């Protein structure tokens, strides 16, 4: 049977990418999204009081996001991302103050990273030895080994773990080293630090609703994708299509299919702060070590905002429901004051954005038995695959055309 009509269930980045590529390949595509807007968890909200769009939380990228960059180029949105000239991680802790992990562009990237780690305050030759061991042991990591076990294996010094490896693990995998999988972390490191082009940070310079979701939605309309918002697909039998693509997080997919397998997720809490007075940060992306808040972003600087209010955002890879918001706010404000050695003005506005299931964690996810015309490209990263990021969503959407073609050839 020739595949002509395809249903895509889920209007996040994976679903939108899949719908775009299927339509470009000549299929008639219906995209179903239960929410009133596209984007999934990669989205913004409109704040009427501020009269501006605000992301749930800041999104940082690395230069190795090649799939994302190609998609942005195809939808004419590359200018919506800004980049560092070379890798710089700005860090702070209460004993050493501010310092930067900075990779010199004139050295080969591997040597630049080793030298950058060695030059961090409190580091010595042990950091160089551990970095070399890390590079030599990236392949053949055991599926069940954690990042912490890997670091113990190479005898990584505490300073290197705290200043670099734990920061990267939390940033890219959104979980602690004692549970994050070493095999996936090794893949991320190998991909991200393979060249100076890959080893640098990027960020969206407009809210995601304008910088990514809107131009992608415009492209969907231009190629003829039929988008159905506020449309919840309750069961597969409701879809009369030649092929169905499930572009849902694993927990949502299981709910649709009536499965009860437990899916491990991790929460992220974003604490948005707006000030009438300028609060000067050394860097627009500031890592915080040994504090409850893990990253502090100067969103106004990232977005080049013309608002009279300065917008900061504190990122916590945890579920803030364990603490009262009033107590948590006092804690993160005191940490910022300690870091900057100032007394902060009272925020004009505070908003907590809690994503209870922000990330589906890298685990041994059970393969789901699906009918031959149904394809699962949702968020369920297996051990050794990339963690749940915008890049993984884009790559998952990109591969679906090949899956549909292959299925058609087998049935023909």
Q: What does it look like?
A:
The protein has 412 residues and is of the alpha/beta class. It folds into three domains: 175 residues, FAD/NAD(P)-binding domain (3-Layer(bba) Sandwich); 88 residues, no CATH class; 96 residues, Polyamine Oxidase, Chain A, domain 2. It is 34% helix and 22% strand. It is built from 13 helices and 17 strands. The strands form four sheets. Strands 8-7-13-14-15-12-16 form a seven-stranded mixed β-sheet, with helices on both faces. A five-stranded parallel β-sheet has the order 10-2-1-11-17, covered by helices on one side. A hairpin with a 4-residue loop joins strand 3 and strand 4. It is globular, with a radius of gyration of 22 Å. The protein starts with a strand and ends with a helix. The mean pLDDT is 93.
Name the CATH superfamily assignment of the largest domain. Answer: FAD/NAD(P)-binding domain
CATH arch. level architecture of the largest domain: 3-Layer(bba) Sandwich
Major pleated sheet? 7 strands, mixed
CATH class of the largest domain: Alpha Beta
The portion of residues assigned to helices is 25-40%
Number of helices: 13
Unreliable spans are none
Q: Give me the count of strands.
A: 17
Radius of gyration (Å) = 22 Å
Mean pLDDT: 93
The total number of structural domains is 3
Give the strand line-up of the largest sheet: 8-7-13-14-15-12-16
Q: Per the principal axes of the C-alpha atoms, what is the gross shape?
A: globular
CATH third-level topology of the largest domain: FAD/NAD(P)-binding domain
Order of helices and strands: EHEEEEHEEEHHHHHEHEEHEEEHEHEEHH
| Strand-residue proportion | 15-25%
* N-to-C span: 6 Å
Structure class: alpha/beta
């Amino acid at each position: 049977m020739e595949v002509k009509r395809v249903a895509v269930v889920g209007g996040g980045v994976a679903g939108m990418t899949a719908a775009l590529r299927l339509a470009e390949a000549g299929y008639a595509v219906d995209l179903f999204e239960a929410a009133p807007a596209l984007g999934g968890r990669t989205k913004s909200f409109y704040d009427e009081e501020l009269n501006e769009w605000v992301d749930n939380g800041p999104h940082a990228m690395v230069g190795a996001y090649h799939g994302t960059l190609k998609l942005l180029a195809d939808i004419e949105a590359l200018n919506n991302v800004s980049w560092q000239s070379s890798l710089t991680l700005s860090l702070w802790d209460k004993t050493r103050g501010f310092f930067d992990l900075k990779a010199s562009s004139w050295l080969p990237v591997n040597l630049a990273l080793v030298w950058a780690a060695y030059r961090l305050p409190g580091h010595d030759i042990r950091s160089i030895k551990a970095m070399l061991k890390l590079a030599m042991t990236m392949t053949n990591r055991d599926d069940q080994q954690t990042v912490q076990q890997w670091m113990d294996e190479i005898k990584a010094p505490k300073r290197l773990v705290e200043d670099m490896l734990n920061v990267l693990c939390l940033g890219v995998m959104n979980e602690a080293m004692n549970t994050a999988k070493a095999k996936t972390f090794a893949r991320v490191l190998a991909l991200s630090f393979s060249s100076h082009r890959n080893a640098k940070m990027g960020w969206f310079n407009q809210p995601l609703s304008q910088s990514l979701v809107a131009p992608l939605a415009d492209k969907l309309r231009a190629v003829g994708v039929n988008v159905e918002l506020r449309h919840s697909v309750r069961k597969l039998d409701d879809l009369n299509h030649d092929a169905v693509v499930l572009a849902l997080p694993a927990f949502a997919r299981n709910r649709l299919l009536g499965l009860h397998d437990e899916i491990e997720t991790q929460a992220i809490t974003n604490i948005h702060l707006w000030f009438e007075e300028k609060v000067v940060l050394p860097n627009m992306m500031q890592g915080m070590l040994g504090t409850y808040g893990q990253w502090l972003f100067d969103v106004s600087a990232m977005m080049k905002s013309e608002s009279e209010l300065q917008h900061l955002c504190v990122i916590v890879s945890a579920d803030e429901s364990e603490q009262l918001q009033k107590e948590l706010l006092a804690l993160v404000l005191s940490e910022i004051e300690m870091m900057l050695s100032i007394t902060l003005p009272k925020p004009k506005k505070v908003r907590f954005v809690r994503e209870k299931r922000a990330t589906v964690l890298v685990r041994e996810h059970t393969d789901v038995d699906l009918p031959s015309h149904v394809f699962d490209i949702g968020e369920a990263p297996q051990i050794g695959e990339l963690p749940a990021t915008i890049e993984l969503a884009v790559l998952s959407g990109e591969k679906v055309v090949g899956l549909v073609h292959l299925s058609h050839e087998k049935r023909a």
